[in-house]
Amino acid sequence: MTIYDEIASNKRKTYIVVAFFIAFITSIAYIFGKANGYGLSFAGIALILSGLTTFGSYYWSDKIVLALSRARPADPKKDFNFFSVTENLCIASGLPKPKLYVIDDTAPNAFATGRDPNHAVVCATTGILSKLDRAELEGVIAHELSHVRNYDIRLMSIVSILVGTVALLADLFMRSLWFRRGDRDREKGGGIFLIIGIVLAILSPLVATIIQLSISRRREYLADASGVLLTRNPQALARALEKISADKEVLEAASNATAHLYIINPFKGKDFGAFFAGLFNTHPPIEERIRILRSM
Amino acid sequence: MDPIMILMVIVAGVLIFIWFTYNSLITLRARVDEAWSGIDVQLKRRTDLIPNLVETVKGYAKHEKDVFENVTKARSALMSAKTPNDAAAANNMLTGALKSLFAVAEAYPDLKASDNFKDLQQQLGDTEDKIAYSRQFYNTNVMDYNVKIKVFPSVIIARQLGFKEADFFKALDEDKKEVKVQF
After folding, report:
1. Which run of H or of E encompasses A19?
2. What pLDDT was estimated at residue B78?
3. How confident is the model at residue A185 (pLDDT cuts 50, 70, 90)?
């Protein structure tokens, strides 16, 4: 596939998954509403609560992640490659220059965050800055800048809101079952919907998380392809991914909350071979990413 | 619905379409022009670095007069070039002269080791990258514009209002020839 086909295909698949997700939420909201008689006001409350809590993390994502990761601002002289490579990619893409930060850790990794290109931050570890040559670093930074440019942070925040909504819906539903007998004013619910509702209440947060992670993986492929469209050098990114994955060290500054932002999953020690583990991975398998890059 | 109403809605729709398409064509054209200026910005950056470089090398290799003269002459030619063809020819001369300069520097280990020289070398290399990327960005914008003036239905508006295709930045045949390094 040409790079343009890659990009179009990834965007299409994102739309399909998000559409499916919305349909999923609508169905479970409907079923819960039928099951306990409260109707759709239920779903509205869950959506608002979830929205409020996630909005803050999206809006201030740059500051929050930097504080969590103990990053320091990059130095134009010491980190010349980092600075000049980012500058050059911004020239190539027309993006405004993001703020650059460095994490002192020998584990090679990098991430980008920020609610839009004007509030973007790109962070790299000292490990990645020393282990990759200039062309490989360019591939990695291009990938990160593509996340910013494709508004992936915004997308993943919206998805998080939806996942949170699902979790809240399931939770509220289960709690509302305890109060069923006391309430005489609401319309009669129950029956088959009750049974389906309980099953869904248990499974839906799980399904929602799987969908969220599937979207995350799709956007990783898209960032790879968009990055290559900037650098015109897929081999460099493939080499960089090979080098990074060969390094077995785990990045100490990363946590579960920030893992999805990094270029490859920072928790490498765990065994990601099994299918179920694959469903729960924020990033696609590295071999697959390298294979796609090498074929471009 | 009243047939007159329907007609008015259709006419309004067409007018709005023409308005939006025209604005979009103007915007894309402006982006192409800005990207072209962007290339000049990087080229100027390179010419600005050169006096520093020449001084640094002179400090260690005073007798290599020919090389310095070539670089300075090429730089003046580039800065005073009036037509794109002159600019391209001068650019070529400058690239060749710079290559000779760096080749000469190889023979002076003190120069090679000096921080000043290394820093300038790094900056010049980076500037070459920037020139290449700014050309790439220009081409990307040209592509978006050319596509827009040719696809249906904006092609109708574009043709009526006289929007012409923009040219991609192509390496001149000059540039593709082997650059001679002279001592």
Report:
1. helix A3-36
2. 83
3. very low
Please return the burial class of A24, using the count of CB atoms within 10 Å of its CB with bins 0-12, 13-18 and 19+.
middle
- A187 is an active site residue: no
Q: Where are the domains of chain B?
A: 3-176
pTM of the model: 0.77
Indicate the SS3 state at residue A122: strand
Q: How far is A137 from chain B (nearest CA, A)?
A: 14
What is the pLDDT tens value at each position of chain B, 183 positions in all? Answer: 688 999 999 999 999 999 999 999 999 999 899 888 888 888 888 888 888 888 888 877 777 778 888 888 888 888 887 777 777 778 778 888 888 888 887 888 887 778 888 888 888 888 888 988 988 889 989 998 999 999 988 898 888 888 888 888 876 555 566 555 544
Please identify which of the residues A6, A136, A144, A220 carries the catalytic annotation. A144
The Cα A223–Cα A111 span in angstroms is: 12
Per domain, the residue ranges of chain A are 3-294
pLDDT per residue as tens digits for the range A40-93: 676 777 777 777 776 776 777 777 777 777 888 888 888 889 999 999 999 998
A232 touches chain B (CB under 8 A): yes
C-alpha–C-alpha distance, residues B22 and B16, integer Å: 10
Any idea which residue has 């494709």 for tokens?
A: A150
- Residue B108: the pLDDT is 81
Count of beta carbons in the 10 Å neighbourhood of residue B45: 15
**What is the widest separation between alpha-carbon atoms in chain B?**
91
Query: Is residue A202 classed exposed, middle or buried when 0-12, 13-18 and 19+ CB atoms within 10 A define those classes?
Result: exposed
Across the interface, of A84, A92, A94, the residue whose CB is closest to B126 is A84
Contact B38 A84 (CB under 8 A): no
Nearest to A92 among B122, B126, B133 (CB): B133
How far away is chain A from the Cα of B79, in angstroms, using its nearest Cα? 23
User: Considering only residues 73 to 132 of chain A, which have any Cβ-Cβ distance to chain B shorter than 8 Å?
Assistant: 80, 84, 87-89, 91-94
Which among A80, A84, A92 is the nearest to B137, CB-wise?
A92
Helix (H, G, I), strand (E, B) or coil at A110: strand
Domain B3-176 top-level CATH class: mainly alpha
